[in-house]
Backbone:
């Protein structure tokens, strides 16, 4: 089946070549970082996590969101999602791979990473995050690949795969819950010290992930014969709408608690993000961009007329992705470090090499995604399933 | 550890403890604030005690500098989050660092509510003027912090900061021993600790 990834149109090769160039650029930047140290990034003594960890957090959500097509299909027998599940699972594979890469590029001593296995530490949330992420990767490889292989052979997936499919559902929730626990259990980081961190993560995941999946579907529709059906798209759009509204609601809950309680430590990160703190406000334009995108997305998603129009729906999906990417990435991660424990404000902006490495990792993810989708679409085309 | 800040205030120019520590442990002096490495350093009262300071503080505290360092907490969050046990608590209470095991994930830096932890963003060796051959230097990519001079404690010596202070402002002792000098000082003086509401149990006390 793998050979299907090797044969394609000129456009397909051009796309792969383009990704290859980006990967190469990222790799060169990484070599520089590897020998110079993480000082090449914008991170500092105060803001000790930055762009990489932000992408990691965001992509765990993208990975977890596969469950939004798997769950209705397998648990509620919602047949319309039949063609989408494989895309969701393959997106999860690419996203988890990127997550792992973003963690690796963020480590100061990457060759020691196996110490996490050599000295397993059950009191560290990172330990569980490693387990759930690698487990989720395996589950999605098993489920996605066996489902596709069955289509290829014209048979049904083997019975032993079923338990893994069901396991993938709670597992998807677990990866983003554990990732939220990385942040929400630390004393003194008041922006993160909130019980609705995990629900917030899940809500933003379940709007951002399906939005990306819909955009990918539209792209596939444009370039191939693949079409999941209007009903599937409309249902997914509804899921995105509800999840996005839940995400905004959760955030407003945070805003209320912080502002109405008037507790300085809870207020400061929000003030820093929205109006600036002690004259520092580099993230202010970012966060307002995020919320303007969110407002427009809500206006496009809530009325059925614009939600069911695939043109405006695609725009809404882009806005949802942009809004959550800023809010959950730069906003949440950097915001949590400002002000620092000594009440100083040190600002953070990613540097060029940092952005280069980030683009490189995304290019690897999209390369994996392109190859997997190519195989899936070709198999479906040859079997006459689309 | 008890720091008598009344004594420190009488000698605002004195940096003997900091200098001794930096030399003993090869702490680099990196000019870029973003990449700084600090084991023991001075912060203004408002920064060291953000939840204690207030606009009506007595005059002599405003803007005065306090020594800050790792608090060697009783329930250290940094130890809790470290995925490799590269930072761990010794039976005697010292929160130690194994810089050879540290993978540089910086989870401990996010978890420490005192900003006591440093990451070697760049190669620190270029910024050590007069290296002390008795103590290892570090490489880029690992976290480091005050280790309460474990290497000296194990030889029955005092931490170098306490020894270097010409005025006896830093007193170190065994909190578990009710008859120790430090417990006597704590019984006789009103002391404060940083951010006690977080429940980490800091072991550095300040006489104000």
Residues:
């Amino acid at each position: 089946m793998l050979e299907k990834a090797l044969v394609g149109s000129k456009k397909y090769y051009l796309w792969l070549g383009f990704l290859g160039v980006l990967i190469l650029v990222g790799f060169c930047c990484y070599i520089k970082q590897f020998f110079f140290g993480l000082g090449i990034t914008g991170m500092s003594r105060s803001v000790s996590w930055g762009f990489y960890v932000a992408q990691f957090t965001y992509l765990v959500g993208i990975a977890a969101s596969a469950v939004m097509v798997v769950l209705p299909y397998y648990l509620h027998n919602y047949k319309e999602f039949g063609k989408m599940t494989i895309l969701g699972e393959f997106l999860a594979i690419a996203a988890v791979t990127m997550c792992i890469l973003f963690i690796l590029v963020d480590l100061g001593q990457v060759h020691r990473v196996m110490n996490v296995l050599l000295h397993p530490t059950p009191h560290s949330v990172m330990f569980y995050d490693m387990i759930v992420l690698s487990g989720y990767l395996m589950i999605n490889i098993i489920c996605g690949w066996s489902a596709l292989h069955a289509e290829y052979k014209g048979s049904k997936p083997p019975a032993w795969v079923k338990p893994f499919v069901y396991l993938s559902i709670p597992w998807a929730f677990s990866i983003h819950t554990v990732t939220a626990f990385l942040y929400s259990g630390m004393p003194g980081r008041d922006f993160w010290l909130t019980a609705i961190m995990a629900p917030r993560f899940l809500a933003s995941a379940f709007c951002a992930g399906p939005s990306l999946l819909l955009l990918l579907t539209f792209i596939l529709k444009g370039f191939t014969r693949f079409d999941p059906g209007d009903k599937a798209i409309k249902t997914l759009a509804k899921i995105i709408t509800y999840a996005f509204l839940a995400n905004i609601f959760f955030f407003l809950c945070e805003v209320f608690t912080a502002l109405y309680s008037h507790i300085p430590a809870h207020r400061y990160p929000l003030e820093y993000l929205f109006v600036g703190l002690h004259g520092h406000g580099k993230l202010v334009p970012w966060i307002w961009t995020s919320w303007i995108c969110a407002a427009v997305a809500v206006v496009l998603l809530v009325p059925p007329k614009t939600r069911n129009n695939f043109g405006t729906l695609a725009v809404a999906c882009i806005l949802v992705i942009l809004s959550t990417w800023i809010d959950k990435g730069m906003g949440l991660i950097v915001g949590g470090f400002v002000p620092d424990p000594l009440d100083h404000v040190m600002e953070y902006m990613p540097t060029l090499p940092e952005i280069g490495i980030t683009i490189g990792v995304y290019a690897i993810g999209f390369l994996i995604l392109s190859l997997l989708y190519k195989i899936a679409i070709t198999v479906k085309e040859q079997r006459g399933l689309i | 550890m008890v720091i008598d800040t009344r004594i420190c205030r009488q000698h605002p120019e004195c940096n003997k403890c900091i200098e001794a520590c930096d030399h003993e442990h090869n702490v680099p002096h990196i000019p870029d604030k973003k990449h700084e490495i600090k084991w023991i350093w001075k912060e203004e009262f408002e920064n060291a005690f953000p939840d204690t300071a207030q606009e009506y503080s007595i005059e002599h505290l405003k803007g005065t500098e306090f020594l800050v360092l790792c608090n060697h907490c009783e329930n250290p969050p940094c130890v809790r989050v470290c995925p490799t046990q590269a930072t761990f608590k010794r039976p005697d209470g010292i929160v130690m660092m194994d810089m050879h095991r540290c993978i540089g994930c910086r989870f401990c830096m996010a978890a420490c509510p005192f900003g006591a932890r440093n990451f070697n963003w760049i190669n620190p060796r270029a910024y050590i003027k007069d290296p002390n051959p008795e103590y290892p230097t570090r490489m880029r990519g690992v976290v480091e912090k005050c280790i309460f001079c474990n290497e000296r404690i194990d030889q029955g010596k005092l931490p170098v900061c306490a020894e270097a202070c010409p005025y006896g402002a830093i007193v170190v002792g065994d909190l578990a021993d009710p008859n120790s000098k430090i417990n006597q000082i704590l019984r006789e003086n009103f002391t404060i600790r940083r951010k006690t509401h977080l429940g980490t149990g800091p072991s550095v006390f300040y006489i104000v």
About this structure: The mean pLDDT of chain A is 94. The longest helix of chain A spans residues 230-261. The domain at 2-382 of chain A is CATH 1.20.1630.10 (Formate dehydrogenase/DMSO reductase fold). The two ends of chain A are 18 Å apart (CA to CA).
